[in-house]
Amino acid sequence: MMSDKSLHFSIINVEGYRGRNFKLKMQAPSKQSVFVMEGNTGKTTLIELLRWCFKYPQSRAEGKFRHMFTEPAHVLDWDFPNKKQRCKIEIHFSKNGHNYMFRRTTEGEYSKEEANEGEIGDNISKIEDVIEVDMGAEVYRGDDAHTVLTELGITASADYFLFDGERAREYMQFASDRSKVQELVDAVDKRVTPRRLVEYSRDLNELEERVFQELGSRVTDRGLSRVLNRLHDLGLEIANARREQRRLDDEIGALERTAKQLEGNIAELNDKIISIKSKNLNQITILNNEIKNIKDGIYRERSSIYENFLKLISHVSDKEIINKIKTKIRERGKLPEPYRKDLINLCLESDPPLCHICGRELDKKSKERIKLLGKQVAPHNVQVFLSSDISYETTPFDPNKKYFEIEKLLEELESKEKKLDRVQLSSEEKNLMKDRDKKLALLYKHQEHLGDLRGELDACVGEIRRLEGEEKELKKKSKLWREYRIILDEIESAKNIIEETKKEIKKYTINIISETIGKSVKSILGPRFSAKLTEDSLYLGENEVFHPEVGGMSGRLVLAYCFAEGMTRVDPMIIDTPVGKMDDSQREQLAGHLKANHRQVILLCLSTELDSFAPVLSPKRTKIQNKRGNVTWLKS
Amino acid sequence: MAKKLGNIKMPKELEEIIKESSNAEASEKPADYDVKEYNSESFLLRFDRLIDPVILSMFFGLYKSQELPPEDPETKFDLEGSYEFGVDIEEYREIFNNLLLCLWIHKNSFPTSKDVSEFRKRLYNFTKKILDDDYFRGVIIPFYTKKAAESTRGRSFLARMRGSGYVRYKKEKMSMASQEFICKEFAERQEEFGDLIIKPLSKKV
Fold first, then answer.
1. Span A154-207, pLDDT tens digits
2. Chain A neighbors of B183, CB-CB under 8 A
3. B-contacting residues of A 330-349, CB under 8 Å?
4. Which CATH fold would you assign to the domain A8-176+549-633?
5. Domain boundaries of chain B, sorted by first residue
6. CA A256 – CA A188 distance, rounded (Å)
7. Considering the domain A197-280+428-509, what is its CATH architecture?
């Protein structure tokens, strides 16, 4: 384990905060403490009070107390409204042979009226922190007390060694909810970046600032002064742009890893889908062949329609009627054309007009009738058309029959396709496909976002180049600048070394924490399970498959414990209501693991949680009761 | 000697159908084309000759419109398509002319003994016109193919034929462009023409 085992809590005494009044006396070092506290006796308040004291210095504590999911929440006792009250918490602990007593006192008045109007109700008049080292040998007050806690590594670990349901839920989400990536990245970053390096970076920035000020004070020339000011600004702009570049690099890296992971998951899901499909392969093959044959049949039938369409035109069922009509309308008992027309002309053109059939002379009336006949004369082609019957071979082509044949084939096809769907899409396969499609959608979204980020990064790199170019030009121009350049270059180089070191340490530390979490998970859940932490992901693994869906609630709760253990820098674990939905064997495994790996476990639990968990930690248990009304009144 | 048809004016859709039925590359696939759901080769390539769609649409135009062509041989039609044919379609032209003759008689009634002379005069004029090659090429074909491109309910016959290259392997609505629907509709219009125009004349002969 990476945590500092020398820290040991001995007494925690709460007076008045949120109406809680109790004192916890811990077992001696290397022995675990079990406190049985029934519902609504202050377990959650205690854990939240400890986080409040450890995380926020006196000057920033007001309004920072959080209770469950409410922030800010009240700290004063609401059973004694509208009177001045003082609340106190004392935490006694030892570390590296020294004894410490941290105390936070809060004075103020609780307003019921304000609370009823939706406010938190606290009207704090004073918060005071103090740390006494070795019974008063050294005393630190106010924010200095917090500095001591920070030096001791308690502040940075307060989110981990103080473990309750809320934290468990948060860490469980780290392992399954990709929208929590940034929170996980921030948490890991904070945990693995050495404080000293952060301080060095800050010091170097201050030094750089001082050099610029010094440079500025020596300049009398206005133009040069402007150049130097611009150089100073450029330095800041470049630093900002580089920070943005690093942020984009990190975000792109995280997204690329997520996308890669998703691609892996999608490939895995596709394999599973194929494996299920192969079980039904034989049936599917038969159905597919049948479907192909039906489709071929439909294609043949439809093709044959266009191949034979013209036959439909020849299919004139009324041709006898047409022929009869033509017979009726054409002239009968006449000479065929053109002989008839020639005969009429001969009759009319002879002088005197003479009938060339009977030889009689034509009177006026007969001449007029023959003239009328001339008007009725049809041209030869018309006469031929009217006198010829419509006759052609009718080839059988029945469009209705074709229509029903194709319709039958389409129905058959539909039925086979439905059958194929049923065979192909078992519920398991459907779920897998649904899951795969969901992941694909997520992947596309990430890829789109990646595209945007890469665009931003390119723009950022371009901007840095531009700024650096401008800076270089200005530096060349300034003689005075050259005198200071060596110092500033050294500062820049030191800053780069620190950044590189940060990265290296981060990589190394994450590996160690990941191994620690993995080993812990294995020891609790069994050899099949493992866990993995990277810069931006936390996974539970089963049989070396690392996936957000591995493990049930209990598996994830164990992962949350192990994550908290891996991330804390100090050894004690203070746990509130610990085992949720775990079964007995897992409870025992977890308790055994905690006992074996921590010098101090402080357990706050319900009496119903004693079985299979608390006894493994310690046979001794202390029942804690809240003493209501133990508030300290202050004179107005 | 067989008569060659020459250059024919026609609706744009018909010209496109002819082009697609001669060239697989020219066939346009639907936007949602998927080889699993559609035929892979255009059905328009299944016509025997390029003139086939013209003949079909001409007959369809006659069946559906039941109108006589304009008498003026110089009538102009607003048509954007055209195609040069070197084929002989006398066989179908003869059928078509017989149907036109029936339609003409239907619209003009049989003559009484008094007006038989005038009737014959008009009949011979009409018949002379429809037997004229230039009139057939310049008026009859453009007039009736244009009728086939007109839509009454939903898409026109030609528009559906134009879209019938690629058809889904599934039951479609009547307005869709599958071969079986196009052919069925053609047969129905043909039957309707027989029932409304030709059969009533049989009572008078």
1. 998 998 999 888 888 888 877 777 667 677 777 888 787 877 888 888 888 888
2. 305, 309, 312, 399, 402-403
3. 331
4. Rossmann fold (3.40.50)
5. 6-202
6. 18
7. Orthogonal Bundle (1.10)
